[in-house]
Amino acid sequence: MQAKETLFADLVQGRAQQFQVPLYQRTYSWTEKQLVQLWGDILEQAELLESGGTASTHFLGSVVFAPSPQNEATFPRWLVVDGQQRLTTLSLALAAIRDHIADTLPEEAERIDEEYLINKRKRGSDYFRLLPTQADRAQYAAHIRVAQEEQSAGDRVAASYRFFRRKLVEAHDPAAFQNVLRIEQAITSRLTLVSVTAERGDNVHRIFESLNNTGLKLSQADLLRNYLFMRLPTLGEQVYETYWLPMQDSLSNSELEQLMWLQLVLDGDDRVRRQDLYAAQQQRFERQEVSEADIEAYIRELHRRSAHFRRIVRPENEPDPLVRGHLTRLQDWQAVVAYPALMLLFDRRARGESDAAETARAMEYIESFLVRRTICRVPPNNLNRIFQAVPAQFPQGVPVADGLHQLLSAENRFWPDDEELRTKVREAPFYRYGLPHQRRRVLQRLEESYGHPEPVDFASAQLTIEHVMPQSPGQEWMRVLEEEAGVGESAEDLHSRLIHSLGNLTLTAVNSELSNHPFERKQGLLQGSHLEMNRRIAATDRWGVKEILARADDLADRAIRLWPAPLRGVGRAERSRDWHLAHQVLAALPHGTWTSYGDLAAFIGSGAQAVGSHLSHTAGVANVYRVLNAEGKVADGFRWGSEDQGDVRALLAADGIHFTITGAADPAQRLTSDDLALLVADAEGEPEEAGEVARPMAGGQVAQTRAARFLRQLAADDSAETVSAVSEVLARWEELGGWVGHGTGKVTTSAFLMLGEAGLPGRGVWPLTLYPGGGRGGTAEVVFQHMATREPFTDRALRAELLARLNELEGVDIPEGKLELRPNFRLAHLTERGNRELLIGTLAWFRDRWQDRDPV
Hints:
The relative contact order is 0.05. It contains 37 helices and 17 strands.
């Protein structure tokens, strides 16, 4: 191999020649992000030319070539092994310059065309100095021939060309066309490349693999496509046109990669990871002598299965309405883990081994398996393994629905039976498990089961989950609970146990109107609902323990009918799973925190006495002594589950627990059932509002309406001084460069103090979420849990500094133990001018730390 530094002009100028991007290369993929960076480099070099500067040229990167099999002595052709993105972009930039000056400087335009873009005396595809991969050729040729037709907005070649045309107009000076020619000169003679040329006989595939198999440049699908077409020297064009290009046009690169992985799984490899797809498939081919015909057969089978996969990811393509309905529900559930099983079902149907009805019945079992596990709080960490094993373990000689039912009912699959489902519907805090869209989907299916003559259009309805008994109950609600609390159980414990259970949840589009009002006021709104479940709630005289449990029983009956049970003989293992969840959360208790028996019971869907009994008879449970009674004191009947570990109060003090004058643990350090749920929750999946934020400049009137509603709800519960103080903080935050988003909220709307693109999960950061109080005063939630997943606040020291700064506000005292959670403080504290200034200073510090983060 030979390597040398060169310029674009030296590379492409001179005699007729062609640089061919082979079929195995990915399509042109530069986005505006890369184009903006390149344009800045070009302008910088153009300015140096204009000023006569002698600074060094700008290094653009490397390009790797190999002799093409079509090479001729009089017309050299080179395969572009690496660097097609740079070469294509520079060619499009020069085409844009040519067209920009075509009317005013036609001779210069013709020169650019002939020196850099075309082989003037050649015909057909030989006319182009650069010949992109087949999927990009038509678009590229249209722009080089100056005969562009209107193309789809998503085409990257057209978008790149338009980008440069737009930038040239911005940079244009009518009195100095030489400015444009300096830009041309900057591209052709100021951007340097390292040109690496392979000799004939070099293993071009290995060169390509070593350059790109880093996980940074190319995906697994890109690498496998390269490998396949490298091994199709004579059939490549035909196979590409017939099989590959239709797949590539109908699936995204990620979907194509997923399909390739599924093909391996369907062929019996139940342990291969998607990130190891390329190596696994390569090893399969190289374990045996494969011919071009073998490679073609593999791609042909991939093409056949791509029709099945498109129906799975786009259910509207499925012609059978029954199967389409099941696919739509699984898509709404985002049941990607079930794809191996679904592909198997579609394969069997295509081969005539089952029909649409049998396929739909099998899909019903998949849906039930996923939904029942979620309702019963079975951890999802082994779902990938379960479904990936389905093709290899599928029983032979039985109908596909029966075979899948049998396979998923195996004892180690943990598919909850009817008894467990009924128990969990009554007792488990459904709202605190699973993902928000899955919770909504369960309630939607339950609503549909009523068979209302005028069903709701769920696709367009803006429905959210409503707690009938509110999360922040007022005095009237607490009086009802006090009347119904049993022996040894407080109204607060009863509320914690029932609040998030399925019997207390419904769907509504009027969350903010329902708010935390007494049940009598909610009845009127629910009675006017189009949802049958809401009308039934409104028909009750009151809403307490009896009514919640009665509704839970009705919903359990419906759930049992909707989602089939596993085959008999499956062990329940219910208690062990529940207690495992309790042990898990106790082990995760942060330093300086404690919880109560009632809180732990509400978290796992049990009772306080059962929790106390289990902990006192189970050895080896971490932090068992940090479970106290509701008053924050060691329970009278406390005993160690194993050998005595010493004085409990001394251990608590060593763990950072402070005590009040009455000897009780500091209530500020107590973790509620909601706090416990956060300890084992996925920070990206909670809260619901994090993915439902309206950005003002993009949300228009909708965002303004939410902002106004937030302030109205705040004013309904807080003083005018608090509303004014909050409004000032929000305005000052925008002056600092942040923006305020407003979420749909669980009960009310909310305000997010945002930086960057935080409306898109994982793309930004927000320090605080503000909530109206709903009867108890508005709060500012400090989202430490979310910060811990976003740079630079993955550094715990930075989060600790933020906590310390917030604790400087008078009346704010957040324990260090809540540094991994989402603690809050009252918005009323902001009525003090000194507190507002301290908070603004803290927000400015937060912004500065975020802006100083290392770029990703």
